[in-house]
Amino acid sequence: MNLAEVRTEEVDGGWALVFVRELRHAPERVWAALTEPGQLAAWAPYTADRDLAATGDATLTMIDGEDGQDLAATVSRSEPPTLLEYTWGDSLLRWELAPAGGGTRLTLRQTLAEPEWASKIAAGWHLCLDVAEHLLDGDPVPPIRGMDAMNHGWTELNTAYGERLAD
Q1: What is the DSSP secondary-structure string of the chain?
Q2: What is the per-residue pLDDT across 129-155, written as a single tens digit (0 to 9) for each?
């Protein structure tokens, strides 16, 4: 199991998970996967009602099986193809993309209500980004969302990230 770099940071009296992963694809391709509704629907834990490359309000629908929950979102920063920042419910997600060896170094910072959630969230993003890599490779697989993650190694990833974050 090849884990991402992870750590937690204190931010504005709260916490953030910092999740860093190398992807094989150029920042422009990764940017499209992060912002275009059709691509997001293929890998992310939510769908978007519009392209996230433009600032302003949006709705992200969290998907768990047949159930969806609409969450208000606001894209506050969009600097293609290097920086995307938006709210997702009570969280702030900041995606930073940098060229790295023919691919992209993706850094996600997500605010957390409690630092204890860091390993759980890292495990979820790990699975989602595995699916995104398949999409970018031209070999799409179904998205892994919600409780379905339990069937794809989420428990083991949660434990492994928990151990890494405890170091």
Answers
A1: --PPEEEEEEETTEEEEEEEEEESS-HHHHHHHHH-HHHHHHHSSEEESS-TTS-EEEEEEEEETTEEEEEEEEEEEEETTTEEEEEETTEEEEEEEEEETTEEEEEEEEEESSGGGHHHHHHHHHHHHHHHHHHHTT-------GGGGGGGTHHHHHHHHHHHHH-
A2: 999 999 999 999 999 999 999 999 999
d(CA 158, CA 54): 33
Q: Residue 112's beta-bridge partner residues?
A: 15
Please give the residue range of the domain that contains residue 67: 5-166
Judge if pTM exceeds 0.90. Answer: yes
The number of distinct structural domains making up the chain is: 1
Q: What is the CATH number of the domain that holds 162?
A: 3.30.530.20
